[in-house]
């Protein structure tokens, strides 16, 4: 292969260095484009093979005499693994991070400055130091700066789920070294994040490569919360006995309680969250990776960089923040390509709580508005009566056909027409305000609609309202679904400490009967005790 020295062929490098026979998906096109000196933005799901997209151009360009590729990566553990694997394959690679001794750092810097390294991995805060910039400048002046690779590029966007301010200054790479090609890579970016990455990293000229985000082996299931822990237990016992899985909860307290409860029910569950002692956390993680059939109950602190191929299910007991979060977290299931399930239970309280967290966060109005939009998209996914996968992929800009492998495709839900019910609910909210000058929460609203004589009803004389008892024919559960949908679609909004309801957005269109609302028929009847008491 002596001729490949001056004109290195990417496929040869893939086979010789990495021992793989063929490129996957768009890898070949990306590698060709970047090796030839083009800029690229690569969107590819986790496990899709992003690393080779810059490693092979780095090797090809080094062999052609262009020198060193600088890889910006935020995760020290990941740098470590990648450099280890590259060295194993005979590639000159190193990383610079804060865990190294001065001697080690100096040795690596010498190698780099001599242009001998093929890939140098560094954290973004290192790249921004005057010392490192001067070193890059020196390489640049001698024609030994081959390529910049920016991994986890969504970190540059505040709309992404993992914003890191140090990423912002990476625009300096382009400003100082304008003719050096750059490749930015990420596994998650919706339209708004994508546009933000392009703007902030000045990648306007870059070719954008979007791989399919479909994970066909994952079955998506979203159920309405009734008694969530029991629902989860049944799901695990019926479908995933002795299999590895992850259960995501929002708070540390809930993680602890859920893990303990599952253990008491005979499930091999362990808790994991950032509030635990470091060694215990590490122990649990190691057990999850090494032993079979452990169910990790965790906050989202668990998962970044954890690569366990045979996770058979991911369950959400609380709503994630948005679809990117949902996609990333559920994406940890079935990395081995075998059937896996993504299960989520959600209810009215989740909707109310997530809205409140956004409202009460100390962010700018613009930021909150974007977050609300993202939450709405997730709620629409949860309430959907058609294919979940079609919706999920559409969110990432991909068209697809009903999948046949999600709950809605497998068991098309029975629906009922809630158009009239939605009008009743909104007009009752309106009357509350008009008559008493106060707003009330969903519990009281349902009582009034169903004509239930509570103390609160008596206190505010709400049995005198024209909407009193107009909805007695519907169950509490049906009413909760109506209200959830109204909130999800922005026709009603919740406010303040008590999550009181008021009219939102285009509520008038609903009141005029212009919005047709089809809802999923509740799968389980409401708990007997309550409904028999009130009917
Ligand atoms: P990502 O960074 O997109 O999550 P990785 O680069 O870690 O994905 O690749 C995931 C796995 O797929 C790795 O084990 C990698 O070696 C393997 N892989 C990537 N490309 C190929 C290929 N063309 N042929 C075979 N295996 C590949
Ligand atoms: Zn489907």
TrEMBL record:
<keyword id="KW-0234">DNA repair</keyword>
<keyword id="KW-0479">Metal-binding</keyword>
<feature type="domain" description="Helicase ATP-binding">
    <location>
        <begin position="31"/>
        <end position="207"/>
    </location>
</feature>
<keyword id="KW-0378">Hydrolase</keyword>
<dbReference type="GO" id="GO:0005524">
    <property type="term" value="F:ATP binding"/>
</dbReference>
<dbReference type="InterPro" id="IPR004589">
    <property type="entry name" value="DNA_helicase_ATP-dep_RecQ"/>
</dbReference>
<dbReference type="InterPro" id="IPR018982">
    <property type="entry name" value="RQC_domain"/>
</dbReference>
<feature type="domain" description="Helicase C-terminal">
    <location>
        <begin position="228"/>
        <end position="378"/>
    </location>
</feature>
<keyword id="KW-0862">Zinc</keyword>
<dbReference type="GO" id="GO:0016787">
    <property type="term" value="F:hydrolase activity"/>
</dbReference>
<keyword id="KW-0067">ATP-binding</keyword>
<keyword id="KW-0238">DNA-binding</keyword>
<dbReference type="InterPro" id="IPR011545">
    <property type="entry name" value="DEAD/DEAH_box_helicase_dom"/>
</dbReference>
<comment type="similarity">
    <text>Belongs to the helicase family. RecQ subfamily.</text>
</comment>
<dbReference type="Pfam" id="PF09382">
    <property type="entry name" value="RQC"/>
</dbReference>
<protein>
    <recommendedName>
        <fullName>DNA helicase RecQ</fullName>
        <ecNumber>5.6.2.4</ecNumber>
    </recommendedName>
</protein>
<dbReference type="Pfam" id="PF00271">
    <property type="entry name" value="Helicase_C"/>
</dbReference>
<keyword id="KW-0547">Nucleotide-binding</keyword>
<keyword id="KW-0233">DNA recombination</keyword>
<dbReference type="InterPro" id="IPR014001">
    <property type="entry name" value="Helicase_ATP-bd"/>
</dbReference>
<dbReference type="InterPro" id="IPR027417">
    <property type="entry name" value="P-loop_NTPase"/>
</dbReference>
<dbReference type="GO" id="GO:0030894">
    <property type="term" value="C:replisome"/>
</dbReference>
<dbReference type="InterPro" id="IPR044876">
    <property type="entry name" value="HRDC_dom_sf"/>
</dbReference>
<keyword id="KW-0413">Isomerase</keyword>
<dbReference type="GO" id="GO:0009378">
    <property type="term" value="F:four-way junction helicase activity"/>
</dbReference>
<dbReference type="Pfam" id="PF00270">
    <property type="entry name" value="DEAD"/>
</dbReference>
<dbReference type="InterPro" id="IPR006293">
    <property type="entry name" value="DNA_helicase_ATP-dep_RecQ_bac"/>
</dbReference>
<dbReference type="GO" id="GO:0005737">
    <property type="term" value="C:cytoplasm"/>
</dbReference>
<dbReference type="InterPro" id="IPR010997">
    <property type="entry name" value="HRDC-like_sf"/>
</dbReference>
<dbReference type="GO" id="GO:0046872">
    <property type="term" value="F:metal ion binding"/>
</dbReference>
<keyword id="KW-0347">Helicase</keyword>
<dbReference type="GO" id="GO:0006260">
    <property type="term" value="P:DNA replication"/>
</dbReference>
<dbReference type="GO" id="GO:0043138">
    <property type="term" value="F:3'-5' DNA helicase activity"/>
</dbReference>
<dbReference type="InterPro" id="IPR032284">
    <property type="entry name" value="RecQ_Zn-bd"/>
</dbReference>
<dbReference type="GO" id="GO:0006310">
    <property type="term" value="P:DNA recombination"/>
</dbReference>
<dbReference type="GO" id="GO:0006281">
    <property type="term" value="P:DNA repair"/>
</dbReference>
<dbReference type="InterPro" id="IPR001650">
    <property type="entry name" value="Helicase_C-like"/>
</dbReference>
<dbReference type="GO" id="GO:0003677">
    <property type="term" value="F:DNA binding"/>
</dbReference>
<dbReference type="InterPro" id="IPR036388">
    <property type="entry name" value="WH-like_DNA-bd_sf"/>
</dbReference>
<dbReference type="Pfam" id="PF16124">
    <property type="entry name" value="RecQ_Zn_bind"/>
</dbReference>
<keyword id="KW-0227">DNA damage</keyword>
<dbReference type="InterPro" id="IPR002121">
    <property type="entry name" value="HRDC_dom"/>
</dbReference>
């Amino acid at each position: 292969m002596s001729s490949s020295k001056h004109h290195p062929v990417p496929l040869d490098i893939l086979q010789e260095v990495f021992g793989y026979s063929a490129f996957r998906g768009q890898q070949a096109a990306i590698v060709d484009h970047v090796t030839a000196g083009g800029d690229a933005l690569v969107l590819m799901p986790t496990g899709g093979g992003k690393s080779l997209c810059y490693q092979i151009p780095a090797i090809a360009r080094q062999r052609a005499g262009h020198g060193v590729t600088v890889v910006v990566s935020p995760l020290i553990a990941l740098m470590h693994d990648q450099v280890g694997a590259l060295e194993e394959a005979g590639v000159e690679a190193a990383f610079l991070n804060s865990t190294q001794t001065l001697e080690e750092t100096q040795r690596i810097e010498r190698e780099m400055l001599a242009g001998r390294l093929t890939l140098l991995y560094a954290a973004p805060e290192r790249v921004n130091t005057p010392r490192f910039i001067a070193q890059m400048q020196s390489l640049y002046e001698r024609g030994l700066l081959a390529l910049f690779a920016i991994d986890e590029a969504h970190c540059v966007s505040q709309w992404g789920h993992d914003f890191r301010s140090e990423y912002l200054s990476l625009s300096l790479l382009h400003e100082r070294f304008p003719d050096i090609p750059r490749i930015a890579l990420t596994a998650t970016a919706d339209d708004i994040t994508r546009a933000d990455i392009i703007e902030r990293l000045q990648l306007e000229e870059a070719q954008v490569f979007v791989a399919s985000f479909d994970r066909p082996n994952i079955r998506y299931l979203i159920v309405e919360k009734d008694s969530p822990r029991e629902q989860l237990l049944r799901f695990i016992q019926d479908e995933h006995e002795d299999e590895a899985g992850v259960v995501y909860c929002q708070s540390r307290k809930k993680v602890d309680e859920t893990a303990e409860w599952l253990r008491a029910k005979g499930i091999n569950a362990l808790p994991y969250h950032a509030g635990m002692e470091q060694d215990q956390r590490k122990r649990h993680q190691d057990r999850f990776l090494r032993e079979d059939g452990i169910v990790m109950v965790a906050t989202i602190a668990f998962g970044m960089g954890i690569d366990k191929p045979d996770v058979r299910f991911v369950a959400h007991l609380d709503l994630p923040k948005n679809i990117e979060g949902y996609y990333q977290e559920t994406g940890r299931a079935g990395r081995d390509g075998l059937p896996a399930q993504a299960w989520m239970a959600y209810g009215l309280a989740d909707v109310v709580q997530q809205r409140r967290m956004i409202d009460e966060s100390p962010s700018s109005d613009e930021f909150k508005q974007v977050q609300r939009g993202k939450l709405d998209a997730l709620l629409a996914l949860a309430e959907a009566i058609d294919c979940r996968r079609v919706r999920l992929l559409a969110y990432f800009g991909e068209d697809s056909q009903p999948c046949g492998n999600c709950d809605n495709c497998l068991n098309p839900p029975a629906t009922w027409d809630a158009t009239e019910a939605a009008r009743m609910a909104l007009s009752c909210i309106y009357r509350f305000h008009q008559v008493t000058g106060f707003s009330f929460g969903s519990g009281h609203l349902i009582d009034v609609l169903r004509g239930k004589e509570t103390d609160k009803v008596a206190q505010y004389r709400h049995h005198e309202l024209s909407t009193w008892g107009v909805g007695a024919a519907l169950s509490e559960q049906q009413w909760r679904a109506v209200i959830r949908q109204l909130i999800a679609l922005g026709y009603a909004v919740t406010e303040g400490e008590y999550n009181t309801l008021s009219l939102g957005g285009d509520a008038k269109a609903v009141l005029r009967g212009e919005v047709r609302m089809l809802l999923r028929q509740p799968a389980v009847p409401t708990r007997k005790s309550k409904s028999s008491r009130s009917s």
